[in-house]
Specification:
The chain is mainly β and 178 residues long. 14% of the residues lie in helices and 61% in strands. It has a single domain, classed as Beta Barrel (Porin). It has an eight-stranded antiparallel barrel with strand order 1-2-3-5-6-7-8-10.
C-alpha cells in the first residue's frame, strides 16, 4: 500500500474515532464554546476563492457556495481562461473551546477554455479535513488539507480523469455576520 494511501486511511480512521467519541476528546468550557460558535452567515476568504457559508449552531455543520475569480493565463504557450464555482458541506467536531476539527466534501464545476478549445464536463469532487480556530465569535482562521481530489474534464474529444491524494490544502479566514 502506498504511503499516501496509508495516510489517507489513517486520516479517515482518526475522524471516525473522534466522531465515535462524540467529538469531545479534550477538555472544554461548554458555555464559552457555545458563545464562540453561534449559528450564522459568514464570508470565507481563501487565496483562490471567496465563499458565502452558513454555520449551524455550535458549528456542527458548515455549508455554502464559493466562486473563484476568472483567470486568464498564458504559461509556456498554453492559454487558459477559467472560472470555478462550487458547493461544500463540512461536519465539525469540537476539540477545545476554540478549536473544531471537520471533514467535508466539495463539488465544483469549471468553465473555460484551453488554447481556445472549450473545456466541457469539467467537474471535481474533493474530500478534505479542516482544523478551525475561533479567534472571536465572528472571526475564524482555518487550515485544510485535501485528502482525495477527483477531477474530470473534456477538451475537444479527449477526456481527462485524475485522482490525486493529498493534492494540497488551503488557509482560510472567515467572518461571521451578527
Amino acid at each position: 500500500m502506498k504511503l499516501k494511501t496509508k495516510l489517507g486511511l489513517g486520516l479517515v480512521l482518526l475522524n471516525a474515532g473522534i466522531a465515535h467519541a462524540g467529538g469531545n476528546i479534550m477538555a472544554m468550557d461548554a458555555n464559552a464554546f457555545s458563545e464562540l460558535h453561534p449559528a450564522g452567515l459568514a464570508v470565507l476568504i481563501q487565496p483562490s476563492n471567496v465563499a458565502l457559508a452558513y454555520y449551524a449552531d455550535k458549528h456542527d455543520y458548515v455549508m455554502g457556495v464559493s466562486v473563484s475569480p476568472y483567470t486568464d493565463q498564458d504559461v509556456a504557450g498554453v492559454k487558459t481562461h477559467n472560472m470555478t464555482g462550487s458547493i461544500f458541506v463540512r461536519k465539525n467536531m469540537p476539540l477545545t473551546t476554540n478549536v473544531v476539527l471537520g471533514y467535508g466534501l466539495e463539488g465544483a464545476s469549471t468553465y473555460g477554455k484551453v488554447n481556445d478549445v472549450k473545456k466541457t464536463d469539467a467537474y471535481s469532487v474533493v474530500a478534505y479535513t479542516t482544523i478551525e480556530y475561533a479567534a472571536t465569535k465572528n472571526v475564524y482562521v482555518s487550515a485544510s488539507i485535501s485528502a482525495v481530489n477527483y477531477d474530470t474534464f473534456k477538451l475537444g474529444n479527449a477526456t481527462t480523469k485524475t485522482t490525486r491524494y493529498f493534492k494540497g490544502g488551503a488557509a482560510q479566514l472567515a467572518y461571521r455576520f451578527n
